[in-house]
Amino acid sequence: MSARDADLQRAMDRAAAELARRLDPWAAGMQDPAAFAAAYLEWCAEQGLRLIPRPAPIQHATPGAPPSVEWRRAAAEIRGEDAP
C-alpha cells in the first residue's frame, strides 16, 4: 500500500462518513433527493473532487463511404480553397 493509497482511503472514508451523515435526515423524509444530491456534490467539489465528463463515443464511417460535407469543407479551408 503506497502513501497515495492511504490518502485515497482516508478521503473515501471521509466521503462515506459525510454521505452517512447526510442520509440520516433524508431517510427520515425531511429532505428531498434532488437537494440532497446537489448538496453532496457541492461538498465533494469542496473536498477536491473534479468530475471529468465522459468522452463522446467514437463514430466510425462505414468502410468505403465518401467523406462528409463537413470533412470536405474543413479540408478545403486547410488547403485555402473555396469550400464546396
Question: Could you walk me through the main structural features you see in this protein, from its secondary elements to its overall organization?
Answer:
It is built from three helices and no strands. The chain has 84 residues and is mainly α. The chain has a domain at 1-50. It is elongated and about 65 Å long. The termini are far apart. The relative contact order is 0.07. The model has no long low-confidence stretch (mean pLDDT 79).
Could you provide a short overview of the structure?
The chain has 84 residues and is mainly alpha-helical. Helices cover 60% and strands 0% of the residues. The chain has a domain at 1-50.
Give structural attributes.
84 residues; mainly alpha
- The SSE order reads HHH
The general outline is elongated
Share of helix, binned: 55-70%
Oligomer: single chain
For the biggest sheet, the summary is:
none
What would you call the structural class? mainly alpha
Q: With helices defined by DSSP (H or I, 4 residues minimum), what is the helix count?
A: 3
| Number of beta strands | 0
% residues in beta strands: under 5%
Question: End-to-end distance, in Å?
Answer: 59 Å
